[in-house]
Amino acid sequence: RTGERFYLYAWALMAGVQLLMILIYPTVIQPMFNKFDPLPEGDLREAIEALAGRLEFPLKKLYVVDGSKRSSHSNAYVFGFFKAKRIVIYDTLIEQCTTDEIVAVVGHELGHWKKSHTVRMLLMAQLQILLIFYSFSCFVTEPHMYESFGVEGMPVMLGFLFFQYLYEPLGMVLQFATNVMSRIHEFQADAFSRDLGYGEQLASCLIKLQIENKATMNPDPLYSAFTYSHPPLVERLDALGNPHLASKDE
What pTM did the predictor assign? Predict the structure, then answer.
């Protein structure tokens, strides 16, 4: 019934579902699996609130989540719309890093907010989804594609299967483009935290987290460029200007 423009309706539906998930995941779904408590009063809370005020960040609530319940992975993130922003800090991050180091990580996350990285990545994702649906609409109605596989007619399910194989090269290009943008954003957020005066603390925290997470510190540059959404530790430290950084060749 949607005709030749069905890809627009499919994209609109997918975009709506994604936006809905962005709204309900941190406030409805994630609290079903993790416990969120207000960050207790103390030096850490005061430092984060002071940083938020300094940047005019509309901080509404400040939480600590029991990330240690399932993993030793440490993180902090910002979510919320308009004037109802919230900051969430993993309990593992509090255990592994000092107050200044945690504030440096929060400064990094606020850098993403300040530079609208989340909005940019969301828009890029929507463009990619639209491109995928549009490409599918072009292939699924192309009789020569079915004829080349010896198929009579144009069954949609087979068209979808064929398209999956044909899409793989395009998917690799799109994934690479996404990784490139994501890595640029990470460097910018690191620089933002450094310019706030937390460069040394951020570098120290990154090293601790890398060791704790047992992640590769200096992978092959080509491999990381194509597969990593975040820059490797050595590149991030180099960009931060860490004076104790060893040569990449070592």
Answer: 0.82
